[in-house]
Amino acid sequence: MAVTTTLSNHYKYMLLTNAIDMDNDLFKVILMVDTFVFDPDSHATLADVTASQLATGNGYTQNTATLTKTAPVIEDDAQDLATIAWDDVQWTATGGIIGPFKSAIIYDDTTVDKTVFGHIDLGAPIQVADGNIVILRGLSLEI
User: Collapsing DSSP states into helix, strand and coil, what is residue 9?
Assistant: First the structure.
């Protein structure tokens, strides 16, 4: 199962116009229904993707999973990179199944329009059975 990521074009614009502060803004992650197909042109804000977000229930609550940075944005001149990384995010299924979902969206909760940062396609639909945990590990961006 290959995991792929795609940045939204609106995020790139917001970053280059200094509307996003990678060090200080609050980023969140949401799970998307398994039929959701990301479009980097038209999925610019949270409002653009809300209809395809997994419903609240069984241990998943919409718009509450906050990403906590593991460290400030890091500049690595030796590798010609800048990196931001976040702690793992997890949900525990309680009272039923979480899913099916196939992807996640990271968005900036600080910007006025709640800018969609990007999309993580997990490669295949996932269901988390009651009592089990789903964890998104190693969330980071290198540019």
Answer: helix
Q: What is the DSSP string of 78-139?
A: TTTEEEEEB--EEEE--SS-EEEEEEEEEEESSSTT-BEEEEEEEEEEEEE-TT-EEEE---
User: pTM, whole model, 2 decimals?
Assistant: 0.93
31 contacts 63 by C-beta, under 8 angstroms:
no
Six token digits for residue 95: 């009272």
Number of domain units in the chain: 1
What tokens appear for 74 in the block?
Answer: 């890091």
Q: Are 114 and 46 in contact (CB under 8 A)?
A: yes
| pLDDT of the residue at 72 | 75
The reported pLDDT for the residue numbered 109 is 98
Give the residue numbers spanning the domain of 82. Answer: 4-142
CA atoms of 133 and 72, how far apart (whole Å): 28
Q: Which residue is it, tokens 């996003």?
A: 20
Q: Measured between alpha carbons, how far is 64 from 26 in angstroms, rounded to an integer?
A: 11
Per-residue pLDDT, 1: 61
Q: How large is the average pLDDT for residues 103-114?
A: 97
**Residue 83: closest CA among 94, 97, 92, 72:** 72
